[in-house]
Protein 1
Amino acid sequence: MSHGDANGDEASGGSAPPGVPDLVGPGLKVVFCGINPGTLSGETGYHFARPGNRFWPALHGAGFTDRRFDPSEQEQLVALGVGITNLVSRTTAAASDVDPAELRAGAERLTALAQRWAPRAVAVLGVLAYRRAFRRPHAAIGRQDDRLGPSQLWVLPNPSGLQARYQLPELTEMFSVLRSACER
């Protein structure tokens, strides 16, 4: 398993989020890619740390984990074939505070990470961020025609509790479709 550091390291494919390390390694089924760390994630060093974030219940509901993990247990995911990273390392109060240039640089970093670790799939969590980062203005939720290096490329909704468009049952179903694709 590799953990990025505040200055970035070669093992994680580029500069990693300060205080919120990449959780990556060989043989992963999927790497989930958030937009950027929120303030609580920046303070704790845990991905998707805010209590209202639906990442952890969706991950469990889709069958990636046998129980609902707490963000403090994130290190255990790699052994289950699940990794986590972010497009942008900078901590902000809202993903809307991230600059389009930061997103584009994040797309390059994510591509390098996929090339290095070759997970079966990379799932970007946030369609608007994906559209800006990868310059795909008409991209939709789901599996993309493009690949990210050797990996399938997926776009799923942002699991933040601030995003009300997709509720937990629908988000869980989308995570389940991804899990099924990763099992093949």
Note: The beta strands are 30-34, 82-86, 121-125, 142-148, 151-156.
Protein 2
Amino acid sequence: MTIAVGDKLPDLKLKETTPDGPAEVSTGDIFKGKRVVLFAVPGAFTPTCSLNHLPGYLENRDAILAKGVDDIVVVAVNDAFVMTAWAKESGGAGKLRFLADGSAAFAKALGLDIDLTAAGLGVRSKRYSMLVEDGVVKNLNIEESPGQATVSAAAAMIGQL
């Protein structure tokens, strides 16, 4: 079953790189008492993710935060090392939180996983964005195709804030 507006996010562990290396972070801690924009991509360094989806959030970061958002989080089914490299390469390090869902446990718990095995990618996350307030989904925008980033794009999110 797919998560819906009004649902509380499950409390799961993701990985984030810290100065001491990869560390587990709890989704409960990430979203508790905060207004957070979360967007998910099928994979770091993939074309739509790197050329369209992520750059839109980086370019519109200040406009999103100015709307009362505390943090912007990007999640992908990659390991923490890949997410760190993507953060550095994209210029997003220190601007957004790059979280790794290495085994797709978060994507599966939300019902937002997609099997891209035929494309050589295995199980990944669907492309989506959501506004989360104190752990509760307020807006949810799911792309119909992993190669599109329109309804989950930063510009669409700004219009919903």
Note: The two ends are 26 Å apart (CA to CA).
